[in-house]
Automatic annotation (TrEMBL):
Note accompanying the cofactor annotation: Binds 1 zinc ion per subunit.
Residues that bind Zn(2+): C99, C102, C139, C142
Biological processes annotated in GO: negative regulation of DNA-templated transcription; regulation of secondary metabolite biosynthetic process
Keywords linked to the UniProt accession: Cytoplasm, DNA-binding, Iron, Metal-binding, Repressor, Transcription, Transcription regulation, Zinc
This protein's name: Ferric uptake regulation protein
Gene Ontology CC: one annotated term: cytosol
Broad class of where this protein is predominantly found: cytoplasm
Cofactor requirement: Zn(2+); Mn(2+); Fe(2+)
Cellular localisation: Cytoplasm
Record SUPFAM superfamilies: Winged helix' DNA-binding domain
Binding, Fe cation: H131
Length: 149
């Protein structure tokens, strides 16, 4: 795990006056290390390797905190979680590419798309609290595997 990334998260937490507890830190590290989006129960099973007494509320509280701080995203369609590529920003638009074969998720930040979305939101005087676009399909790796079968 990238220590610089963890330090950055710890610094943001300190600036905001919130605590990155050991459990929150562990859940964040697990999410970052997983290549695909992880469900709460997958994270719980992984967490039990280092904290055998971990219970579902531990993971759910950590996920709520990490979401609230903008360090992770919820993949709404699969009820799973991925790290945020521009974490620390409380509100931003993200576009997730989700592979239905392998489960990998890529977060995109496109300034043109964001400008268009902001324009649409502003036009209607809408105050958004969360905005995630999810595109499902097959990633390049899985597509090329299909081509070879």
């Amino acid at each position: 795990m990238n220590q610089q990334l963890i330090q950055q998260v710890e610094d943001i937490c300190a600036t905001r006056g919130v605590r990155l507890t050991p459990q929150r830190r562990s859940v964040f590290v697990l999410i970052c290390e997983n290549k695909k989006a992880s469900s709460a129960y997958e994270l719980l099973e992984q967490l039990k390797a280092s904290e055998p007494k971990a219970k579902p509320p531990t993971v759910y509280r950590a996920l709520d905190f990490l979401l609230e701080q903008g360090f992770i995203h919820r993949v709404e369609s699969t009820n799973s979680f991925v790290s945020c590529c521009s974490f620390g920003e409380h509100k931003h638009f993200s576009h997730l590419l989700i592979c239905d074969k392998c489960g990998n998720v890529v977060e995109l930040q496109d300034d043109n798309l964001i400008a268009l979305l902001n324009s649409n939101v502003d036009k209607y005087g809408f105050q958004y609290s969360n905005h995630v676009i999810e595109s499902h399909g097959t990633c390049q790796t899985c597509s090329s595997l299909e081509d070879h079968t």
